[in-house]
Amino acid sequence: MTIYVSDAVHSEVEFQVKHMMVSKVKGSFEEFNFEVETDNLETFEDATVKAEIETASINTGNADRDGHLKSGDFFDAENNPQITFTSNQVEKSGDTVKVTGDVTIAGVTKEKTFELTYNGKGISPMGGQEVHGFEASFTINREEFGLTWNAQLETGGVLVSRDVKVQLELQFSEKQ
Question: Which of 67, 101, 137, 156 has the most other CB atoms within 10 Å of its CB?
């Protein structure tokens, strides 16, 4: 089996949530590692997928908001330094890969299925290594993972939406 790792320079983990039910706040995690173990990344045959995202690396462009997200009201980054994923089933159909596995956020683990789209492969001009691209978009209900902090608005609704939209752009190459 070959291990492929995400290239942090050419990969992104981004998210967005509704704020006050009228606008969107976007952010990203700056430190993460995705790893796929398989004999063939194009076919994903017998693949195992693992991911680790450093919660303290959250970046929304606002230090006060980032501090609140790292606190016990949300990720509790001091006690839960990572969001993790470990696959237990992988199914490929065309350019789509369904990956089912255990997601752990803030100490709560739930089984989830995500669909990755294979964007193809190329040869990097920086060293000639073969690279593979994948992307995924999905929504997570943060309350399922105990991230329930919120504030009711006088006009109705809540300060922070329950649903978090996640966008992954991942470029993999063989682990050196």
Answer: 101
